Amino acid sequence: MKQAVADLVGGTKEEPQRADLVRKEAIAFFTDRAGPWADMRAEVCEAIDRDPDEVRGAIIEVLEGADLPHLGHMRGENIEKSRALWRAQTSQNALIEAYRAKHASKRPMSVPKPTPVIIRRMRPTPVPVVAVVRPKGLIKPTRRAAKPWLCPPRDPADDWLYGIAPAPN
Asked: Quick one: which of 17, 18, 63, 141 has the fewest CB in 10 Å?
């Protein structure tokens, strides 16, 4: 919070365009009603036990010309630059709102679109599953080694066990 106040009213040693950007971000932090800056202000105010709406109101009063409160070691030498940015922003917002109001009356009333009909397909009834039971003696379970490279080599006499050669009689 202290850094945001310093960015708003204090001087910066950066180039003028960067300093104006920092001031605009500080103004947005303190004055936005909704959005990420307002959420951040609410979090910071909660941490320092302040009401974010009261902080917003106090900063707007200062930006509109009220006297600065005592800021300790900070000087409000560049508050006029912040006030000028605030005035430019509010006048631009007023122009935008006037434009929207003017053109809102010219727009035809929007007719609600009909709700699309949702066609649901019926699912087929499930067919009962019949379990196939095989006698135990006909199929032998095969075993696979987890690590075949560690198994001993296969004996060719046992090929019939693997289904490679016919069974001995």
From this structure: 141
User: Which pTM value belongs to this model?
Assistant: 0.54
Burial of 147: CB neighbours in 10 Å, binned 0-12, 13-18, 19+: exposed
Per the CB < 8 A criterion, the answer to whether 10 and 78 are in contact is yes
Q: For 146-157, what is the mean pLDDT?
A: 68
Q: How many Cβ atoms from other residues are within 10 Å of residue 42's Cβ?
A: 16
Give the burial class of 23: count Cβ atoms within 10 A of its Cβ; 0-12 exposed, 13-18 middle, 19 or more buried.
buried
Dist. CA 3–CA 15, nearest whole Å:
18
The pair of structure tokens assigned to 123 is: 């699912």
- pLDDT the model gives residue 139: 57
Q: Which two tokens stand for residue 71?
A: 């800021």
